Amino acid sequence: MVLQQFDDSWGRFSSPLFKTYTLTNFRDILQIKKLSQEKQFEIEVVGNVLPFKTNNYVVEQLIDWKNVPNDPIFALNFPQRDMLKPKHYRKMENALKKGLEKKEIQRIANEIRLQLNPHPAGQMEHNVPQLRDGTKLYGMQHKYKETVLFFPSQGQTCHAYCSFCFRWPQFVGMEDLKFAMRETSSLIQYLKEHPEITDILFTGGDPMIMKAKLLSRYIDSILDADLPNLQTIRIGSKALAYWPYKFTSDDDSQETLDLFNRVTRRGIHLSFMAHFNHPVELSTDAVKAAIRAVRGTGAQIRTQSPVLKHINDDPNLWAEMWKKQVSLGLIPYYMFVVRDTGAQHYFGVPLIRAQEIFRDAYQQVGGLCRTVRGPSMSSTPGKIQVLGVTNVGKLKAIVMRFLQGRDPKWVQIPFLAKYDKKAIWIDDLKPFSDKKFFFEDGLEKILSKDMKSSGSDDSTVHGGPP
Ligand code: SF4
Hints:
The chain is of the alpha/beta class. The protein has two domains: 20-113, no CATH class; 120-452, TIM Barrel (Alpha-Beta Barrel), CATH 3.20.20.70. It has 16 helices and 13 strands. It has an eleven-stranded mixed sheet. β5, α9 and β6 (232-237) form a beta-alpha-beta unit. The longest helix is centred in the middle third of the chain and has 13 residues, at 212-224. Iron/sulfur cluster (SF4) binds next to loops. GO terms for molecular function: 4 iron, 4 sulfur cluster binding; catalytic activity; metal ion binding. Its cofactor is pyridoxal 5'-phosphate. Keywords: 4Fe-4S, Iron, Iron-sulfur, Metal-binding, Pyridoxal phosphate, S-adenosyl-L-methionine. InterPro entries: Aldolase_TIM, Lys_aminomutase/Glu_NH3_mut, rSAM, rSAM_sf.
C-alpha cells in the first residue's frame, strides 16, 4: 500500500497520519497476522525486554514482507528471538506463559536489562559535566574538548526504535538510566564557561520527534545567547529514514525548515547527522523529498550507521549506500562498530570482519564517498578506528588509531593489538607487546578525575561524530 502521493511539482506530499505500532497493537498489522503464532509470540517475549516501536511508514514502505523474517528492516524494527541470550529468553518466555502480573513482568525485564550493560563506555559515571558552582548537568555529556551533547527531555523517544540501539535504556522506562534536560539555561551557562566548545550536538532519542515549536525553544535560545565560539549545531536523527514527512508534509514541517534556515542564516553551520542503516531507507520518494527540503535550508546532511549482522554486514551494500548518499547530496561520515550493550551478541560483527567490510566497500567507491571513516568503536577512551591487520615479524597484529580521544594527544597515533579474529570490542583485545595499551594509564587518571568533576560521549549511533 502506498501511503500517499506527490501533491505538486515541488515534491510536496499530502500528510499521512503517523501511526505507531508497539507490543500492544503490533498484531493488528495485516502482514504480522500472516506470521505464525510462534513468531508473533517471539516478538512479544523479546519486546518485553528490549524497546519495540515501529510505524506505518516503516511497515508499508521499507519492509519487504515477502522477505520476512530475513528482511533487514524487519530485523531492524521487530524484536527477534536471538536478540536475547537463551537464558534471558526463557526467563521472559516463562513469565509470559505463566501469565504473571504486569508489575512482575516489568521487574523481570529490568533484571534482565541490567545484565545487558545498559550504559556502555561509562556514560553515567564519567560523562556528566558540571557548572562552576558544582551543579551537575545530567542532560548533557562532554567528553571531547570541542563538542557537547545535549539531551532535550522531550526528545527522548524516536519515530521507531532500532533493535540494536545502545540508547535502549532510555526507551524502556528505566528512569534512573535516562539522560534528559528540560531547560537550556544551564546549557548556555556551561557553554559560556567553556569557550573551547564549538559544537553542540542535539541527541536523544531523536530530537526530531519534537514539534518544531519545542525544538525552536531550545535552538532559538542558543541563537539568542549569541555565543561567540559556537560554530556548529548538530542534530543526530533518524527521522529522514523513519518518518521523512517530518520535513515535507507534517503540520509543522515548514516551521521546522524555517528553524533550520534561521540557524544557517546566522552563519552557524547546521549539520544534520542522519542515521541510515540500509540503502532501502534512501529509496522512497518521501525520503528523497525530505532530503531536498533539509538541504534547501543550507543544512548539510552527514550520514552514519553501525555495521550490523543481519542488517548490513556486506561490503557491496555499504558501497551502494555511500554512492546513493553522495548522489542525493549527503556526506558519508561514519561506519561504527556496534556497541557493547543490549543485543550486541546478535548484531555484533568481529572487528576484523568489520574492517574487511569497510575496506572492500571503500575500494569500490569514488573520492566523494571517501569522506567516510571507520570502522570506529565509541569506547571509554575515545573513538578507535580499526585500520587493518599487519605482520610484525612472524606474528599478525591488528592496527588501530584514535579518531577522537579523551586526551587529544592520543589521536592519530597508530597502535597494535594481538590478532584476534573473534574480538568484537576493544575490551576483547590485548596489547601486541606491552602489558597495557599506551593510553591506559592516562585514561585511568582522566576517569578518576572525571568522577570528581565532569566528562562526555558524543557517540550516539545517529548522533555522531562518535
Ligand atoms: S539508533 Fe537512533 S533512531 Fe534508532 S532507536 Fe536509537 S536513538 Fe532511536
